Amino acid sequence: MSTTITLKGNEVHTIGTLPSLGTTIRDFALVDSGLHVKTLDNFKGKKKVFNIFPSIDTPTCASSARKFNEEASALHNTVVINVSKDLPFALGRFCAAEGLDNVETLSDFRSSFGDDYEVTITDSPMKGLLSRAVIVTDEDNKVVYTEQVSEIADEPNYEAALAALK
């Protein structure tokens, strides 16, 4: 069952729906800017904020990465994980240029994360990219908050996502 969202008012669909509250998230294999694979085990025992977006090279995606980076420094036992289909080199370039050092920025360019978490866009010019979504888990990888941003050009609800960590 796909989820309907919009891109500048035009209907777009994702492969499915975000994980349900209380469920355990699936493992993943995402790539960092040094081409190292990161899995769920790399973040064991930490609360996780997945900031999922289409591309770091768009204004809204860049804003969300900056905002979560800014907020992450004050979060106890929490990691913010930015995820997109961008190549690891582009993500590394962006983070270095912006001084983003309080977040993990990982690429889904060769994994099934988008399909596993049901955020892959299935139509429109953005077909194959990830939708804008936020998934927050506790230390045991249980989902405590989700947001499928209904308009891709809009920023997520940062306050609600961060409040779910308390």
From TrEMBL:
<dbReference type="GO" id="GO:0008379">
    <property type="term" value="F:thioredoxin peroxidase activity"/>
</dbReference>
<feature type="disulfide bond" description="Redox-active">
    <location>
        <begin position="61"/>
        <end position="95"/>
    </location>
</feature>
<comment type="similarity">
    <text>Belongs to the peroxiredoxin family. Tpx subfamily.</text>
</comment>
<comment type="function">
    <text>Thiol-specific peroxidase that catalyzes the reduction of hydrogen peroxide and organic hydroperoxides to water and alcohols, respectively. Plays a role in cell protection against oxidative stress by detoxifying peroxides.</text>
</comment>
<dbReference type="Pfam" id="PF08534">
    <property type="entry name" value="Redoxin"/>
</dbReference>
<protein>
    <recommendedName>
        <fullName>Thiol peroxidase</fullName>
        <ecNumber>1.11.1.24</ecNumber>
    </recommendedName>
</protein>
<keyword id="KW-1015">Disulfide bond</keyword>
<feature type="domain" description="Thioredoxin">
    <location>
        <begin position="19"/>
        <end position="166"/>
    </location>
</feature>
<keyword id="KW-0676">Redox-active center</keyword>
<keyword id="KW-0575">Peroxidase</keyword>
<dbReference type="InterPro" id="IPR002065">
    <property type="entry name" value="TPX"/>
</dbReference>
<dbReference type="InterPro" id="IPR050455">
    <property type="entry name" value="Tpx_Peroxidase_subfamily"/>
</dbReference>
<comment type="subunit">
    <text>Homodimer.</text>
</comment>
<keyword id="KW-0049">Antioxidant</keyword>
<dbReference type="InterPro" id="IPR013766">
    <property type="entry name" value="Thioredoxin_domain"/>
</dbReference>
<feature type="active site" description="Cysteine sulfenic acid (-SOH) intermediate">
    <location>
        <position position="61"/>
    </location>
</feature>
<dbReference type="InterPro" id="IPR013740">
    <property type="entry name" value="Redoxin"/>
</dbReference>
<dbReference type="InterPro" id="IPR018219">
    <property type="entry name" value="Tpx_CS"/>
</dbReference>
<keyword id="KW-0560">Oxidoreductase</keyword>
<dbReference type="InterPro" id="IPR036249">
    <property type="entry name" value="Thioredoxin-like_sf"/>
</dbReference>
